Amino acid sequence: PRRSKAGILLPIETSNYVSLTFSDFKTVWKFISYFFKDVTEIPEYMKSAEEKIAMLTDMTLQEWLFSWIDQEIGVGMLQDINDPFIVIRCSDTQKALKNFEILNIRTISVRPDTFEYKGYKVNQIALPPGMLSIVRLFVPELRLPYFFVIEDYLVVTQSRRVVNEIIDAYSTKKVLRYDEVYKKLVANTDYEGNLSVYWDLKRESFGILEERNLMSKMFRQYGRGLISISFEENAISQRLSIEGRDVKTFAMLSP
Predict the structure, then answer these.
(1) Which of 78, 129, 130, 192 has an alpha carbon within 20 to 30 A of 172's alpha carbon?
(2) Which of 78, 95, 67, 229 minimizes the C-alpha distance to 166?
(3) From CA 181, how far away is CA 183, in angstroms rounded?
(4) DSSP characters for 160-204?
């Protein structure tokens, strides 16, 4: 497993962030396909996305994605803002921007809302049918999102306010990378699992808090924590770190 490095741009006011990290994006793609295997519409979404990408870019969907996506994809939310954002680590940010711009030129029917904020160029992307449906599995309300690059990460969000908040936090170093509690959580878990879940509920809550299960009880009892899960051969290992508590570890056999 590879370590998530998204803390370099996640604002301290991040309420939750879920990331997938693997050795390469092909493995991530296989994992996502397996995770949603019971969603009956997935084959239709995939077929539509593959056809549109081939028509618009002269590349296969896999070629279009694998040529720039690196080892991490994550979805997060900020405190008091209901619009989520997607974080994608890039092996080649220029290739990512070029691929997005090709789609814009050939699909967008209205003038995109392009602007610059504190030195960062922010554009909008029109995702073709099929691909948009796949992305909406993670961000249901996504329509014509903004995208921009910070270091080797591409950030995608529907909200202009989220754009400003992330760039502001990065510019002023008010990101999780420099937060002492977050650094302790990461140190306790190594943060090298294939699936990592970070939460900070000091002002935000989730629907899961209303449920009666072990996970919701843990969230209610501990306001901030990090879970790291590694998928290994014949087993799933998990590490849990909670603010103010010693690290707890346990492992269980995979089904």
Answers:
(1) 192
(2) 78
(3) 5
(4) HHHHHHHHHHHHTT-BGGG-HHHHHHHHHHTT-SSEEEEEE-SS-
Taking the CA atoms of the chain, what radius of gyration do you get in angstroms?
18
pTM of the model: 0.82
Consecutive H or E run containing 150: strand 146-150
In this structure, the number of other CB atoms found within 10 A of the CB of residue 113 comes to 11
Give CA–CA dist 98/92, Å, rounded. 10
**Assigned token pair, 82:** 């209901």
What confidence tens digit (pLDDT) does each residue in 35-78 have?
777 777 877 887 888 888 888 888 888 888 888 988 889 999 99
Q: How many residues does the chain have?
A: 255
Beta-bridge mates of residue 155: 87, 148
Give dist(CA 54, CA 163) in Å, integer: 30
- Going by the DSSP 8-state scheme, the letter that residue 38 receives in this structure is T
Q: How many CA atoms lie within 13 A of 219 on its CB side?
A: 21
